[in-house]
């Protein structure tokens, strides 16, 4: 049974109050620190992006440092296009490293210069690559021309599907490229470091990202992972990073892949099976514009996750393997801004933040429900260098200024120890959100953790609704139980709302400048940091519990940090 969230049916009276603009009744959220529900593993500390060459650019370097500072454990990073042929010039949904070319006689030429710049950026910050083997170098592609695409927002998405996506004309040469890459990594960073990485093949091979058949993908997997293991027998390998497994085609691809790894004939060795140390799939939501306003669909994303967990759990041989949701986002195109895709207008403000808070809490719960080994979920958002301010890309920062959503991850970074029981009178059950999303009353809910190494606890509270419409703030009382003999607690409340931790509203108040002055940039950088809602205070503990009251606006997120 799902025990973390209690959902009560929304009454007609509550809906009437919403429609008339009257204040909501007080929301009561009860936290019991004595009832652990599972570890507060940093499954959120995973990020990814299409454009690898942004990694070592000015704003990319700044953001990487901020991401590395978020988490008590190493942050993992996944990027596309690491083996593409080209000069390293960055472009939307494109990247290149020129790692593999051939001389006039068809002999391989390896060049790790750009890959090293990318991976050096991670390693020196204590970050870890989720190393994606792909895509196909021009010299190896079975259909190389045209090779580099010239896509830009507003163009058909199919325009990106050029020569990089096809199987190799020589599987042995591709395998040797992979082997040389792993050997080089071990030489450069050390065996112990590379053992902590994850190696995977390709991206979304059930979709047009892969220009071959499912069988050709399995063949390339056998060649690639065999090459990884020849270079480093203890390396962690896996895949297949399909699109959402709620789709029948994607689910069939995932099952066929797992069956091949379990009992299929290995294309390289002729033996049974192929190495598989982790399983990866993607999960996206589906926002749209309804009557001029953005309507999110958290339920769609959770159904993809739930189905993927269920499929993995159905294979006894693989049911305890780590699961990585390789892209886990409100929708599917990070480089599609809100000008060309108005449904993506959620990205600059607090709606993206509240969605992210509510979504990750439910990912934990779904993993508990399906009893799977949930390792991480990659937020496919980074930054887009030298692009317009607040263009509406799915990014964590714009021109070096952090957006509100990044502060949710700062909040998660403060949550340690064990997740504990939470109930509430305006909280949706996780399965209810999965099946119907959040379309009636708002989901005013919380995720709480008890630090197992100190007298400390954290409670993240959000006021989320799929519909991005004006609504009254909700009065919230958080009751924290299980404080034992403590007489008082120190309370710090952090907040993301229209006036806190929000560079976007600060930019709008400036008149939305596309060429802000140095003083304005400094002001925006300050506004983009996580801010306290008020000064730290002491709260009295009565019979082992403390009561904390606040007003939480729609699409806002608060984090209470308690110490005693």
Automatic annotation (TrEMBL):
One GO BP: carbohydrate metabolic process
Stretch forming the signal peptide: 1-16
Gene3D superfamilies: Glycosidases, Glycosyl hydrolase domain, family 39
Highest rank taxon of the organism: Bacteria
MF terms (GO), sorted A to Z: hydrolase activity, hydrolyzing O-glycosyl compounds
Family matches, as Pfam families: Glyco_hydro_39
UniProt entry keywords in alphabetical sequence: Glycosidase, Hydrolase, Signal
This protein's record includes keyword Hydrolase: yes
Active site: 204
Domain (Glycosyl hydrolases family 39 N-terminal catalytic): residue spans on this chain: 29-529
Family per similarity comment: Belongs to the glycosyl hydrolase 39 family.
Entry protein name: Beta-xylosidase
Organism: Hymenobacter jejuensis
Species classification: Bacteria, Pseudomonadati, Bacteroidota, Cytophagia, Cytophagales
């Amino acid at each position: 049974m799902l025990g973390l969230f209690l959902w009560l049916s929304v009454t007609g009276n509550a809906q009437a109050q919403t429609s008339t603009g009257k204040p909501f009744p007080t929301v009561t959220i009860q936290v019991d620190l004595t009832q652990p529900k599972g570890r507060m593993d940093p499954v959120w500390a995973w990020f990814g992006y299409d454009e690898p060459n942004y990694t070592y650019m000015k704003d990319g370097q700044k953001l990487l440092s901020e991401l590395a500072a978020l988490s008590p454990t190493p942050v993992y990073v996944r990027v596309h296009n690491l083996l593409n042929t080209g000069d390293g010039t960055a472009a939307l949904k494109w990247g290149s490293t020129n790692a593999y070319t051939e001389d006039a006689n068809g002999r391989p030429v390896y060049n790790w210069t750009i890959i090293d710049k990318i991976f050096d950026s991670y390693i020196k910050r204590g970050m870890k690559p989720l190393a994606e083997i792909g895509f196909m170098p021009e010299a190896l592609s079975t259909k190389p021309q045209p090779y580099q695409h010239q896509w830009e927002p507003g163009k058909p998405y199919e325009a990106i599907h050029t020569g990089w996506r096809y199987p190799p004309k020589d599987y042995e040469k591709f395998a040797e490229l992979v082997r040389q890459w792993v050997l080089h990594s071990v030489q450069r960073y050390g065996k112990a470091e590379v053992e902590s990485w994850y190696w995977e093949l390709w991206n979304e091979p059930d979709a047009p990202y892969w220009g071959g058949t499912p069988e050709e993908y399995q063949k390339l997997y056998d060649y690639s992972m065999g090459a990884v293991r020849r270079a480093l027998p203890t390396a962690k390998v896996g895949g297949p990073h399909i699109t959402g497994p709620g789709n029948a085609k994607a689910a069939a691809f995932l099952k066929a892949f797992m069956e091949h790894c379990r009992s299929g004939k290995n294309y390289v060795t002729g033996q049974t099976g192929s190495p598989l140390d982790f399983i990866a799939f993607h999960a996206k939501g589906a926002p749209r514009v309804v009557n001029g306003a953005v309507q999110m669909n958290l339920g769609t994303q959770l159904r993809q996750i739930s189905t993927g967990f269920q499929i993995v759990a159905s294979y006894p041989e693989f049911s305890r393997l780590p699961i990585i949701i390789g892209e886990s986002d409100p929708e599917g195109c990070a480089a599609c801004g809100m000008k060309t895709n108005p449904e993506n207008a959620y990205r600059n403000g607090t709606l993206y933040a509240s969605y992210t808070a509510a979504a990750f809490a439910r990912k934990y719960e779904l993993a508990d429900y399906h009893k799977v080994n949930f390792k991480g979920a990659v937020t496919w958002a980074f930054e887009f260098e030298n692009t317009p301010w607040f263009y509406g890309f799915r990014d964590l920062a714009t021109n070096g200024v952090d957006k509100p959503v990044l502060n949710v991850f700062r909040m998660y970074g403060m949550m340690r120890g064990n997740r504990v029981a939470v109930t509430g009178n305006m909280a949706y059950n996780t399965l209810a959100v999965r099946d119907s999303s959040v379309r009636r009353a708002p989901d005013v809910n919380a995720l709480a953790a008890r630090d197992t190494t100190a007298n400390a606890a954290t409670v993240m509270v959000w006021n989320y609704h799929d519909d991005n419409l004006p609504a009254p703030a909700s009065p919230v009382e958080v009751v924290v139980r299980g404080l034992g003999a403590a007489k008082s607690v120190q309370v710090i409340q952090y907040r993301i709302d229209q006036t806190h931790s929000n560079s976007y509203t600060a930019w709008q108040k400036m008149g939305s400048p596309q060429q802000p002055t140095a003083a304005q940039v400094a002001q925006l950088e300050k506004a983009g940091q996580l801010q306290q809602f008020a000064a730290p205070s002491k709260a009295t503990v009565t019979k082992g519990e403390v009561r904390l009251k606040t007003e939480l606006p729609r699409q806002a997120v608060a984090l209470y940090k308690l110490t005693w």
